[in-house]
Design goal:
The structure holds two protein chains of two kinds.
Chain A lengths: L1 H16 L9 E8 L6 H18 L7 E8 L6 H12 L5 E4 L3 H14 L3 E3 L14 E3 L4 H14 L5 E6 L3 H16 L3 E7 L10 H10 L3 E5 L3 H13 L8 E5 L5 H7 L7 E4 L8 H14 L7 H20 L5 H8 L3 E4 L2 E5 L6 E13 L2 E13 L2 H4 L8
Parallel strand pairs in A: 1-2, 1-3, 3-4, 4-5, 6-7, 6-8, 8-9, 9-10
Antiparallel strand pairs in A: 10-13, 11-12, 12-13, 13-14
Chain B lengths: L1 H31 L6 H17 L5 H22 L9 H23 L10 H4 L2 E3 L2 E3 L1 H23 L1 H11 L1 H6 L4 H27 L5 H4 L1 H11 L4 H21 L6 H13 L36 H9 L7 H12 L4 H23 L8 H18 L4 H23 L4 H21 L1 H4 L24 H23 L1 H11 L11 H27 L9 H14 L5 H20 L4 H15 L3 H18 L1
Antiparallel strand pairs in B: 1-2
Helix pairs in contact in B: 1-6, 1-7, 1-9, 1-11, 1-12, 2-3, 2-4, 2-9, 3-9, 4-26, 6-7, 7-9, 11-12, 13-19, 15-21, 16-21, 16-23, 16-24, 16-25, 17-18, 17-23, 18-23, 21-22, 21-23, 22-23, 24-25, 24-27, 25-26
Classes of the chains: A alpha/beta, B mainly alpha.
């Protein structure tokens, strides 16, 4: 509790000190670019709720200022709709801060505008590792695929006893990132990848059976899966179970996309036994998370479950608030980045901070085990990789090294 | 061995689901030549009905599945009587647009009621645990699907071969006109077939929940697969749909197993080859079902402003018909006015203008030559990537060079494809363009090292215009640049369509069979206009890349092809200004609705499409014509 309070005090003092610069109470406009319609509408809904919840709970902290969210639909991952929305948010609505961006391509296309308009851009998902290098005014509070898949590779070889592994991934950039990260870590730790299978694009949920059959015949100890959440996750987990692969001694391992909290109930018993690595699950047994989940249910109904998208939205708004607390309405890209570099926050997922070097998030990566407890499917944290930086940039892999 | 059996079984099960959903589509298309792109919506509705019956009403899986089929089948009759009935015998375009409109509305409605997240059902215990036959473990649910499929095909066969209704349906598929003449009530027959087809689709959708998942977008996600089943099998042939569905299921499954790197390639490659070889599908009938009279086109009727006037000779008429008129400058003056009046919306305006040029390019082949394509984004994408790669790979960022290179590459690609495809018509042409565009998309994804794949091509720079004008944050320079190019595009399109060449295209559209008789090399003309259209689409693509300094796979997407077709039809195809008017109406509506309620803009777009088809024959501009004529008629009397 202490760090939070001292943080608040610091913020208040800072606000008080900079008061002369602020001409009274301002409404600070924040542009939010999310795919409210289309295939990722579900993610947008969770992020949006996360943001609204943070504002609801913390509005007083930035008084006398207020935030006004201006929400724009980025529709699909094509880039151009997001870019036009971003451009208009900057030129017409005169927003002081940009946030949102779930699809990486939309963040990539819009990045140059942050530089040109000198507006800070806080990424709420967009997990392709090298995105923050596209503009000096981008900070990311979400994650990179490498942050989750890399430790999964290490853990699989060192702790799960996997000698050989097969990889199945959805054939688009996050999937390829997951494949590369897992493979590098797994082989560094002495394992051997025997099969690596692209499993179709992200748009349609394929019948996973033929891909999984191939893995089954490859006789690997562990099967690392990346699919982009949602209906994909349910289908993949059920296929694994249906083919009886668990009974043949193959271990199902994945990034947290596969054990998405919102999908566990649909998966049912099929989910039991899988091991995933990720930065958040609503089952985390920490005071900060318990409060968060309770507030969430109070706001959006007892049946609603927050997942990592929700928490990323929540944390993005925490970052926005931090900038406002420090700068009032006098916000530029450079100043905001100075505020956010090294900023740390007690999120429901644990402590997160922004790496001053890369403006990317540093966070705990937790090993999840899916188990059944009192008739319910739940996630238990069985190990933690504390305060991980993005391995892609740490190891200077490919474009991350530039 | 066990693997092989399991592969065959899974392929069969997948094929059976495809069959159950697609068979109704095939029969309605065969019976009335009716293109029902909303057919997948019934499958989706079946999935949700099953979900509701099991979760809200607490019924068991089996009775829910059958009930879902019956409920959706009956409900579909309502739609049929209310909406579909009005466009029977209408043009393919009207049908395509009406049903796309319904599909959009169904997506929005399902999102509203069930949310965008996927829904799942709980299978009964009997179907969940695997079963063992002859020492081989088989997934019970797949076995169940195959069994249901087998029962379905048996029932359909019996119903069609052994009942009077079945005989009537077969007769009507064979010859609609004569069936009606001998006293068969084809309209009622069609209603029954429609209901059964939709009911089957709903059951298929219910079966698919466990295999493919259930989201509001189900009907559009798998639309291409359903169309492939129908086209490859042959319209109206139940046997064809059955074999095509099974073959597709099996090929898709085996390709994934043996060659996962091939991605989605195989299905589309097979489709392409089969249709090139047998345009009518494996079991389709030889002759074409396409209807000659196309109300959505401008037609060869005399334009509004010339009606009631008389001319002394042909030259005078042609001058009046095709001479420049001051009113033609109006839209461009409007576009220029936007530059001054809406300075903070120029980025959006620029994207609208790009779409105008793209739609204009489609108007050349669709509006004038009468070819319906769902793959035009291929040329847009080729141009977009040509301009992007020119900058990223070769460091040439001068904007006009980018346009020129895009024009040449897209044009050549279009010419080559047009030369091959020109002899195909109707649904076959539509499927061939669709399949080839999807193949190109898959190829671009496969070579992500060149194209940047899904994340797109970054690092594109565009040199200042004429080496002087920089690109500002508001998009002013871009807007004027795009506007100038689009005006040039308009002048070129106008020149082409008013030339003897363009007039011969209208001839081809109006009577494909008679044009060769008067000495017109039909296929050659179609190939040339296809090439010109592709070149123009390529320029639009290049402008898109330059204005965004970015291009990704979405430039090539199926959705983009669909949107541009929609734009043209909403406003009125075959009149050049349709492109201008349609792009503005569509994109502004989309933009404004999505601000009003970002979740539901698709409903508004869908509703607009339905209303246009029902009440504005010839699109919105056609409506304007009618009103104009009526007002003038009143003045005179």
């Amino acid at each position: 509790m202490k760090p939070t309070r001292s943080l608040t005090v610091t913020a208040l003092v800072a606000a008080a000190l900079s008061f002369p610069a602020i001409a009274g109470a301002d409404t600070i406009k924040v542009g939010v670019v999310l795919p409210y319609s289309g295939g990722a509408a579900q993610e947008a809904k969770l992020i949006d709720r996360g943001m609204e919840l943070y504002i609801k709970l913390h509005a007083k902290e930035i008084a006398p200022h207020k935030v006004e969210l201006i929400k724009r639909d980025s529709k699909h991952p094509g880039g151009e709709v997001a870019k036009v929305a971003t451009r208009e948010l900057v030129t017409r609505d005169k927003v002081k801060i940009l946030t949102g961006y779930t699809y990486s391509p939309n963040a990539i296309a819009s990045a140059s505008l942050a530089t040109q308009a000198k507006v800070p851009m806080i990424l709420v998902n967009a997990a392709t590792a090298w995105i923050p290098s596209l503009s000096p005014y981008i900070a990311r509070v979400s994650w990179t695929m490498w942050q989750a898949a890399y430790p999964m590779g290490t853990y699989a070889a060192n702790k799960l006893g996997c000698k050989t592994a097969a990889i199945g991934y959805t054939d688009f950039p996050p999937g390829k990132d997951a494949r590369n990260a897992f493979k590098m870590a797994f082989e560094k730790a002495g394992g051997k990848v025997v099969e690596s299978i692209p499993m179709g694009g992200p748009r349609e949920v394929p019948d996973y059976t033929p891909f999984f059959q191939r893995v089954r015949n490859a006789k690997a100890n562990c099967f690392f899966v990346f699919v982009p959440g949602g209906a994909h996750s349910t289908a993949a987990v059920k296929t694994f179970k249906r083919l009886g692969m668990d009974k043949e001694g193959i271990k199902l391992i994945a990034t947290g996309d596969l054990s998405q909290d919102t999908r566990l109930a649909d998966m049912g018993d099929a989910a039991i036994g899988m091991i995933t690595v990720h930065h958040y699950s609503s089952f985390y047994d920490t005071p900060a998370n318990k409060t968060f989940v309770a507030e969430w249910k109070k706001a959006f109904g007892a049946d609603s479950v927050p997942d990592y998208f929700a928490v990323q939205g929540y944390d993005a708004m925490a970052a926005v608030f931090q900038v406002i607390k420090k700068l009032g309405s006098d916000i530029t890209g450079a100043k905001a980045m100075e505020v956010l570099k090294g900023w740390s926050f007690q999120s429901p997922r644990g402590k997160i901070s922004i790496d001053p070097e890369t403006r990317d998030v540093i966070q705990d990566e937790n090993v999840h085990s899916v188990v059944k407890e009192n008739g319910k499917i739940v996630i238990k944290v069985i190990d933690t990789f504390p305060q991980m930086k993005d391995p892609c940039k740490e190891l200077k892999v490919g474009r991350c090294g530039k | 061995m066990a693997t092989l059996v399991s592969l065959i079984f899974d392929g069969l099960a997948y094929g059976m689901v495809l069959f159950a959903i697609s068979v109704g589509l095939s029969v309605t298309m065969g019976l009335m030549g009716f293109v029902n792109l909303a057919h997948g919506a019934f499958a989706m509705a079946g999935g949700y009905a099953l979900y509701l019956l099991m979760n809200a009403a607490g019924l068991d899986f089996f009775s829910s599945l059958i009930l879902a089929g019956i409920i959706v089948g009956l409900a579909s009759v309502l739609l049929e009587r209310l909406l579909y009935r009005h466009v029977y015998g209408g043009s393919d375009v009207d049908q395509v647009m009406l049903t796309i409109g319904i599909l959009f509305m169904s997506i929005a409605a399902a999102t509203y009621f069930f949310g965008p997240e996927p829904q799942a059902i709980r299978l009964p215990e009997v179907l969940r645990s695997p079963m063992t036959i002859g020492g081989i473990r088989l997934p019970t649910y797949r076995v169940f699907i195959v069994a249901v499929g087998a029962v379905l095909i048996l029932l359909l066969w019996l119903g069609l071969e052994r009942t009077t209704v079945g005989a009537k349906i077969r007769a009507s598929v064979d010859n609609y006109g004569i069936a009606q003449a001998v006293g068969i009530n084809v309209s009622r027959l069609f209603m029954i077939t429609f209901a059964i087809g939709s009911g089957l689709a709903a059951m298929g959708g219910g079966l698919a929940v466990e295999v493919l998942g259930l989201t509001p977008r189900f009907g559009i996600q798998y639309l291409v697969m359903f169309l492939i089943v129908v086209a490859v099998g042959g319209m109206g042939s139940i046997r064809g749909a059955f074999l095509a569905a099974l073959a597709l299921g099996f090929i898709d499954n085996s390709a994934k197993y043996f060659l996962p790197q091939g991605g989605g390639f195989f299905i589309y490659a097979v489709t392409l080859v089969v249709l090139l070889w047998r345009p009518q599908g494996l079991f389709g009938k030889q002759e074409d079902h396409s209807h000659g009279d196309d109300a959505a086109h401008g037609g060869i009727s005399i334009p509004v402003w010339l009606r009631g006037k008389s001319f002394s000779n042909v030259q005078a008429y042609l001058k009046a018909r095709f001479g420049w008129r001051a009113v033609e400058a109006l839209p461009w003056l409007f576009a220029l006015a936007v530059f001054f009046l809406l300075p903070d919306r120029l980025a959006f305006g620029g994207q609208v203008l790009v779409m105008v040029l793209f739609a204009l390019s489609l108007d050349l082949i669709f509006g004038y030559a009468g070819l319906i394509t769902l793959g035009h984004a291929a040329y847009f994408g080729i141009g977009a990537y040509a301009a992007g790669l020119l900058s990223v790979r070769l460091g040439i960022s001068e904007p006009f060079t980018g346009l020129a290179v895009a024009l040449v590459i897209s044009g050549l690609a279009g010419l080559a494809v047009g030369w091959v495809l020109a002899r195909y018509r109707g649904l076959t042409f539509l499927m061939l363009t669709l399949a080839s565009a999807i193949l190109l998309y898959e190829f671009a994804n496969l070579r992500a090292d060149i194209t940047g794949g899904f994340d797109g091509l970054t690092g594109i720079s565009v040199a200042p215009l004429f080496g002087v004008f920089e690109y500002d944050l508001w998009g002013k320079t871009h807007y004027l640049y795009i506007l100038a190019i689009v005006i040039v595009g308009y002048i070129v399109a106008r020149y082409i369509t008013t030339s003897w060449f363009g007039q011969s295209l209208i001839g081809i559209r109006e009577n494909y069979d008679r044009m060769p008789a008067i000495g017109c090399p039909v296929n050659q003309r179609l190939a040339i206009i296809y090439g010109i259209s592709a070149a123009m689409a390529g320029v639009a693509g290049a402008l898109y890349t330059q204005s965004n300094a970015y291009v990704s796979l979405s430039a090539l997407s199926f959705e983009r092809s669909g949107v541009v077709l929609t734009i043209l039809v909403v406003a009125g195809a075959g009149r050049l200004y349709g492109a201008f008017f349609g792009a503005i109406v569509y994109m502004t509506l989309e933009d404004q609705l999505s601000k009003l309620n970002p979740h539901l803009w698709e409903f508004g777009i869908g509703l607009m499409l339905v209303l246009v088809v029902l009440f504005a024959k010839g699109g919105l501009l056609g409506l304007v014509d009618q009103i104009y004529l009526r007002v003038r008629g009143r003045e005179r009397s």
